[in-house]
Design goal:
The chain contains nine helices and nine strands. By secondary structure, the protein is an alpha/beta fold. Helix 7 links the parallel strand 7 and strand 8.
């Protein structure tokens, strides 16, 4: 009995190995690649989600969706539909608030992690802060919860540009290794087919951020 207790104490005091988070201590805007790009979508889960999924499926493209925890709770069917299509679910905090000013950012990220696991049985390994507002403290919090902080190198500016301008802008900026920011809104949905056709014409592949990061050299 005493021997068992002693072994238990030793095991309890032994250091626990923690998996290294890719790009720990920094953010990811793009990843070196010769033929791959990552299309990502932030929040606005709703009427445009299923049409976007159909367009992506038609072009055999995979994407990463950074989702709010409140949206995952409200629309679990849409989140599961994306998972069934092979898309990547990532953390965008519990609510769309500036996490650098939030009183309890760790709790917000953790709640979104739980919502993701409850909805699709997966714990996200990627986080993008709302409003793209990030600081060293928030990076540490995300890393401690097992997440890499992912930003972007190209933005579609779909909150202000028309579909035609979005298409022209993204095609003019996009290079292999880029991570593109879209939202699940009409303007991006209408621009997406032309952008995906153009990516195919370049001989490139649209993949998830996780796939883009796999095998890439770490800083």
């Amino acid at each position: 009995m005493r021997a068992a207790l002693a072994i238990g104490v030793v095991l309890a005091l032994a250091p626990v190995a923690i998996a290294t988070v890719p790009y720990e201590g920094t953010t990811v805007e793009r990843v070196p690649s010769e033929t791959r790009v990552a299309l990502t979508f932030d929040e606005s889960l709703g009427d445009e989600t299923r049409p976007i999924l159909r367009i992506l499926r038609r072009h055999d493209a995979q994407s990463t969706f950074f989702q709010l925890g409140t949206e995952m709770r409200a629309e679990p069917g849409l989140v599961r539909a994306r998972a069934r299509n092979g898309h990547e679910l990532a953390n965008h905090a519990w609510r769309h608030r500036d996490m650098t000013r939030a009183a309890h950012p760790a709790q917000s990220l953790r709640r979104a992690q739980r919502a993701a696991y409850k909805t699709v049985g997966v714990t996200p390994t990627l986080f993008r802060p709302p409003f793209a507002e990030v600081d060293d403290r928030l990076i540490r919090i995300a890393n401690r919860q097992g997440m890499t902080v992912v930003m972007f190198s190209v933005t579609a500016m779909d909150w202000t540009l028309s579909p035609a301008y979005i298409s022209a802008w993204v095609k003019g900026e996009l290079e292999p290794g880029d991570i593109v920011l879209f939202h699940q809104v009409r303007n991006s949905r209408e621009a997406l087919p032309e952008i995906l056709r153009w990516i195919e014409e370049q001989g490139w592949e649209a993949v998830t951020v996780g796939e883009l990061m796999d095998g890439a050299p770490q800083p």
